[in-house]
Amino acid sequence: MAPNDSAGTNGTTAPGTKGAVAGRRKAVRYIVPVAVAGVAAATIGLVPALASSGDPDLPKITAQELIEKIAASDTQQLSGTVKISTDLGIPSMGGLAGSFLANGADGAGDKGSASADPQTRLTELASGTHTLRVAADGPDKQRVSILDNASEYSLIHNGDQVWAYDSESNAVYHAKGGADRGEGEHRAAPDGVPTTPKALAEQALKAADGTTSVTVGGTAQVAGRDAYRLVIKPEQSGSTIGSITVAVDAENGTPLKFTLQPSSGGKAAIDAGFTSVDFKKPDASTFSFTPPKGAKVTEAGEAEGHANAGAEAEKAKGDLSALEGMNGMNVIGKGWSSIAEIKTPGGAALPSKESGDVPAEAQQFLDALGDKVSGKFGSGTVFKTRLVNALMTDDGRVYVGAVTKDALVNAANNAG
Fold first, then answer.
1. DSSP labels, 358-374
2. Which residues in the chain are classed under CATH 3.30.310?
3. Would you tell me which of 60, 138, 319, 371 could form a disulfide with 357, CB atoms 3.0–4.6 Å apart?
4. Which pLDDT band, with edges at 50, 70 and 90, does 312 fall under?
5. pLDDT at 19 over 60
6. Tens digits of per-residue pLDDT, 256-268?
7. Spatial CA neighbour of 33 closest among 83, 76, 72, 84
8. Dist CA 175 CA 28 (whole Å)
9. Is the four-CA dihedral 354, 359, 364, 365 of positive or negative sign?
10. CA-CA distance, 416 to 413, in Å (whole number)?
């Protein structure tokens, strides 16, 4: 079993640090861009996979060497099954997302074109447990399928073509192009959607600075492969993140499993991992798609045009117009305890049910998360999850971060 060996990120500059940073930047370029996690996972189903064969006996490795191993990994081809779930301490997002989009631009509960739009469907990964089948062949070919009991939703990226298909509604979404994303940014998923365990690991390693402890926490077996455990822990108080553990393939350096434990304890809040994986080149047919007979096909431009048409969409646009002139975001603090402060223009109040700007179902969802607070800043409401919390003051300021409620209140009290 590998020792708990620090990577030297607790405020001093360890030898090779610059090389490690450059390595991490290289690793970002080589991330296999398969959208599998949404806001992923607390995977109870992965526990037996980690424990059944015991901890493999692997050569000793330091945290610095393990980080460099991840950075050197150039996994471009794989296929497998990922089991993910999320426990953020919020109600299920299924069917609710449309409440925030002008009562569902395509109609609430409509099983038509909107049901295949990735912007809508991938939000389902923000809660619950999901099984996904994934495949990738370089930066231009990826596929991810969300498997339900009696249906399947697939998202396919092949060159300049992106297809999405919902078998339950027989709806198809099609987008073409994507060259404007820049080198290495072609992907099947919308921007901002978390991807593979490797992508999640790279995001975590970006925070491995003077506010972070990085160690090797032993070994494991994930999806039948030997792996090292890289453990990342914030060294600051006030963060809602307790630790992040990344299981790294001992042979090729590919992260196989990502687990985030909240500082409040309990089961994992985010965990995404392979239950089976194969690093061979997937068959070319995996990335081919032809709309089934009778399917309703919606082009990306048509969907956007429909969403912006009609009185309801115009009302939604007006509701958000007050936010267009927001001041530049001010970041308070650093590292894991950093808090973003945003001010609405002229101290305008945020949209609410009382003003008619927020649908009643959405407001009920927000109220279930909120705690009324007060202090030197005045009064406001803290909206809570197990990870990210936000304080919205009554005079139109927003403080948000992966920090505790007390940290948000202190930031508001000390803000000028």
1. S-HHHHHHHHHHEEEEE
2. 325-414
3. 319
4. very low
5. no
6. 999 999 999 999 9
7. 76
8. 25
9. negative
10. 8
Q: Nearest to residue 55, comparing CAs of 267, 213, 257, 217?
A: 217
Cβ contact 258:249 at 8 Å: no
Gyration radius (Cα) of the chain, Å: 22
Q: Which fold has domain 325-414?
A: TATA-Binding Protein (3.30.310)
Using CA atoms of 88, 199, 120, 345 in order, give the dihedral in degrees to the nearest 10: 80
Q: Where are the alpha helices (DSSP H) in 150-307?
A: 197-205, 300-307
Which range is least confidently modeled, 37-41, 248-252, 296-300? Answer: 37-41
**304: CB partners within 8 A, 6+ apart:** none
Q: Identify the pLDDT of residue 46.
A: 29
Q: What percent of the chain has pLDDT over 70?
A: 62
- CB under 8 Å to 65, separation ≥6 — which residues? none
Taking the C-alpha atoms of residue 26 and residue 62, their distance in angstroms, rounded to an integer, is 20
Model pTM? 0.70
Cβ-contact 230, 216 below 8 angstroms: yes
**Domain 17-287: CATH class, spelled out:** mainly beta
Report the greatest alpha carbon distance in the chain. Answer: 65
- Cβ proximity of 315 and 190 under 8 Å: no
Task: Compute how many other C-beta atoms are within 10 angstroms of the C-beta atom of residue 299.
Answer: 14
H or E stretch including 6? none
Among the ranges given (5-9, 40-44, 127-131, 225-229), the one the predictor scored with the smallest mean pLDDT: 40-44
Output 86 or 304, whichever has higher pLDDT. Answer: 86
What is the side-by-side strand order in the sheet with 171-176? 212-222, 225-234, 241-249, 255-262, 270-278, 77-86, 128-137, 141-147, 152-158, 161-166, 171-176, 296-299
Range name among 70-74, 222-226, 250-254 with the lowest pLDDT average? 70-74
Amino acid identity, residue 184? G
Boundaries of CATH 2.50.20.10 in the chain?
17-287
Contact 1, 218 (CB under 8 A): yes
The tokens describing 412, both together, are 């508001």
